[in-house]
Amino acid sequence: MNTKLHAICDSHGRPLNLFVTAGQVSDYIGARALLSSLPDVDWLLGDRGYDADWFRDALKDKGIRACIPGRRQRKKPVKYDKRRYKRRNRPSRDIAAQCTAGQ
Q1: Residues 27, 51: contact at Cβ < 8 Å?
Q2: How, if at all, do strands 15-22 and 65-67 pair?
Q3: pLDDT truncated to tens, each residue of the chain (103 aa)?
Q4: Residue 18 DSSP SS3
Q5: Is residue 103 part of a domain?
Q6: Is the overall model pTM greater than 0.70, yes or no?
Q7: Cβ contact 66:59 at 8 Å
Q8: Domain containing 59: what range?
């Protein structure tokens, strides 16, 4: 038995909201649970586990640009800011709400 921690963090890596699931549960469950609590931000950095069209659409509806690499099995690759994603400062963080104020 293991668990998975889904977190919304600010641009300094400080957690704003947390959601815990069982380890075998899809990352989509964590994304859906935390979606309504996302702060007003410009960017969201997330790992491949959060690559879903519905999630990208929900972020776009909120005015948030997704920086999430596509899953390898995607038939059509998605575009994301590779430079921004590479510069993320907390590799263990799954979802990071990136505020652009002060950057």
Answers
A1: no
A2: unpaired
A3: 699 999 998 877 889 999 999 989 899 999 999 999 999 999 998 888 899 999 999 999 999 999 999 999 998 889 988 888 877 655 444 454 444 443 3
A4: strand
A5: no
A6: yes
A7: yes
A8: 3-98
